[in-house]
Amino acid sequence: MANVYVLAGDVGGTNLRMAAVSSDGSMLCQVSEPTPKTGAADDVIDAISRVAESCIAESRIDGRPAAFGLALAALVSVCEGRALSSPNLPELNGLFLAAKLSERLNLPVVLENDATAAAIGEHWLGSSKGVESSVFVTLGTGVGGGLILDGRVYRGVDGTAGEIGHICVEPDGVRCGCGSHGCVEQYSSATAIVRMAREQLEQGLASRLKVDEAFTSKDVYDAAAKGDAVSLETFRQMGRYLGIVLAGLVNVLNPELIVIGGGAAAGWDFFIEHLRSELLARAFRHPATRVRIVRASLGETAGILGAARVAIDSVTEPARRSAM
To answer: Which regions in the chain score pLDDT beneath 50?
Structure first.
């Protein structure tokens, strides 16, 4: 098969990233800028279109890309190309974003959830390459997930499968942005790390942590590395809650591999043993001892590469089927 060249984007509440990617996984250019914060959908569409054209020009390849794959921090309907619900970019809610961008760029556009795209990227070129069944978990501002089952991405009937962050671990727990209570996102994300550390400090526990407006999960990580008791307890709780969720997924899906990525995965050394302990205590023994838990290897490029793979498949798979 000839090398196919596609455009791939990853749009979150903070950054808009774009790359030109070939079907062997080579990234021909990379462009990034802040996501517009005006609250207007047209401004986001304008920014995506402008950065896309800039990336196409910078790649210096003859002709237009074969397709454009866009990963979005939202619940998405892949078949409709529609953003269903985006907590970070609510102006896109309900928007048929793929169609609008296709009209602007004169390209076929496919839309994908950002965590699912990252799972696809890791399966293509990262930590789960060659693995038939894997669960991907991303620990960032929230908690996201993606499922690869029998070698194929699993999206569910509405395209919303993989929302691991909204599995409940505390029925009457902290209210979540999704409208529910006690989602694991409220206990195992970077945002949760900050909240849980603050709550302990408010109880008067001794700590080297100093809370101010700039207080972040990295501060908790840095203090944990120096043996701070509050920080270590925060990561213990984080790992325990995530272990509860993953034990349930191991029982239901029996995956070969669990891949953990995202910025908050930097605290791996402080939470992984608590996660493993909880998983082993709660899941069936054989699948729990069989499953491997590893760190993601592609970093911030996982979503871009996954979006590229989705775009490549949208072009090559129909052609392959028609040739059969």
So the answer is: 319-324
Is-contact 142 191, C-beta < 8 A?
yes
pLDDT for position 318: 61
From residue 109, give the alpha-carbon distance in Å to each of 30, 71, 99, 101. Answer: 18, 11, 7, 7
Q: Please give the backbone phi and psi of residue 6, each rounded to the nearest 5 degrees, phi first.
A: -130, 165
309, two tokens:
């793979």
Residue 277 CA from chain centroid, whole number = 24
The two tokens of residue 26 are 């080579």
> Taking the complete model, does pTM exceed 0.90, yes or no?
yes
- 8-63 pLDDT, tens per residue? 999 988 889 999 999 999 998 899 999 999 999 999 999 999 999 999 999 888 78
Angle at 200 between CA 197 and CA 206, to 5 degrees: 105
Is residue 44 within 8 Å of residue 89, measured between CB atoms? yes
Q: How far apart are CA 105 and CA 146, in angstroms?
A: 28
Cα–chain-centroid distance for residue 163?
Answer: 10
Long-range contacts of 39-42 (CB under 8 A, 24+ apart): 39/90, 39/91, 40/91, 41/91, 41/92, 41/95
